[in-house]
Predict the 3D structure of the following.
Amino acid sequence: LLADELKAGVHALAIEPAAPGEKTRW
């Protein structure tokens, strides 16, 4: 995974379990 992908995943988890329109990354 790219650094941006990891940041996006962590940021998404910080707000909600999964990003809008995306499944849980972790």
Notes: DSSP finds one helix and no strands in the chain. Residues 3-15 form the longest helix (13 residues). The mean pLDDT is 63.
